[in-house]
UniProtKB/TrEMBL annotation:
Protein known as: Ribosomal RNA large subunit methyltransferase J
One MF annotation (Gene Ontology) recorded for this entry: RNA binding
Pfam families for this protein: RsmJ (PF04378)
Reactions mediated catalytically: adenosine(2030) in 23S rRNA + S-adenosyl-L-methionine = N(6)-methyladenosine(2030) in 23S rRNA + S-adenosyl-L-homocysteine + H(+)
UniProt keyword annotation of rRNA processing present: yes
Source organism per UniProt: Acetobacter aceti NBRC 14818
């Protein structure tokens, strides 16, 4: 396990994932009934962007760094408003330090009394860091456990009939897209009403398209795909873009997601940024 998210925290891909995640959580909060979130690849929850690791790549400067440089009342930032307010709030709580919230911290802040968060993290040090962050919080449980095993073992949620499964792998394994097809299928069989969101990298076009075809062949319906590309996917050695594939998206999430991606297009990348929102399979 070589991947450490601190090198990439706050980059354009995190901005896309976390802005969309915030909006998914807002949709879940609209109904009164309890919800539960399973974050299968949780990371460490909070990332110090002034750390040597984050500074070694400087990726965050082209992501959250650009957005935080804009005045917070910039009118067209409206679709990112809730997520950026959360990021600024976390930094304020840490005395203005460049501390960036990852997916479990974003979820935590959306929980209402009775809602719950279940995190899995396989890296020994990272799962310890996550446990330290959430110790004594009864709404959160942290498992030192393989994500794909967790999808079988921890679904459906014990405490709620609604919820979200966020699957955000590091794509270190060649089998990751194949594993994802199995994981999405298992998650939906065990938790049919749940939203399942899968982050994936776009290095070149064909692997994500093969992933969608495999999901279609497995009989999946109600699949929405959102992509942000900062350059044409010509060099497969680079992270040219990323996507979030969502099964059972909330009502009108295609419209909300499109507004988020258009805003990110305007401020991230070098003028060639493009977004895409498409139904892979309608409801
Ligand atoms: N979701 C996090 C966020 O948005 O803040 C970032 C997660 S990072 C992309 C992927 C994480 O998955 C890493 O922390 C890595 O250690 C962990 N990981 C890798 N393989 C795993 C597995 N099989 N099961 C659970 N966690 C795994």
């Amino acid at each position: 396990m070589n991947y450490r998210h601190v090198y990439h925290a706050g980059n354009f891909a995190d901005c896309m994932k976390h802005a969309l995640l915030t909006t998914l959580l807002r949709a879940l909060s609209r109904k009164n009934t309890l919800f539960s979130v399973l974050d299968t690849h949780a990371g460490i929850g909070l990332y110090d962007l002034s750390s040597p690791q984050a500074e070694a790549t400087g990726e965050w400067r082209e992501g959250i760094g650009r957005l935080l440089d804009l005045p917070s009342d910039t009118p067209d930032l409206e679709p990112l408003k809730d997520w950026l307010a959360l990021v600024r709030q976390v930094m304020k709580e840490y005395a203005g330090k460049m501390v960036y919230p990852g997916s479990p911290e974003i979820v935590l802040r959306a929980l209402r009394p009775g809602d719950s968060l279940v995190c899995c993290e396989l890296h020994p040090e990272d799962q310890r860091a996550l446990r330290r962050l959430f110790h004594n919080n009864p709404a959160v449980s942290v498992h030192h456990r393989d994500a794909y095993e967790a999808v079988t073992a921890l679904l459906p949620p014990k405490t709620a009939k609604r919820g979200l499964v966020l699957i955000d792998p590091p794509f270190e394994e060649r089998s990751e897209f194949t594993d994802l097809v199995k994981a999405v299928t298992t998650a939906r069989q065990r938790f049919p009403t749940g939203i399942v969101a899968v982050w994936y990298p776009i290095k070149h076009r064909s692997p994500p398209r093969a992933f969608f075809h495999a999901l279609q062949d497995a009989g999946h319906r109600n699949l929405l795909n959102l992509e942000l590309s900062i350059r044409p996917p010509l060099d497969p050695g680079l992270l040219n873009g990323c996507g979030l594939l969502i099964a059972n998206p909330p009502f009108k999430f295609d419209e909300e997601g499109a507004a988020i991606l258009s805003t990110l297009c305007k401020y991230l990348g070098d003028g060639n940024t493009e977004s895409l929102v498409e139904w892979i399979v309608p409801e």
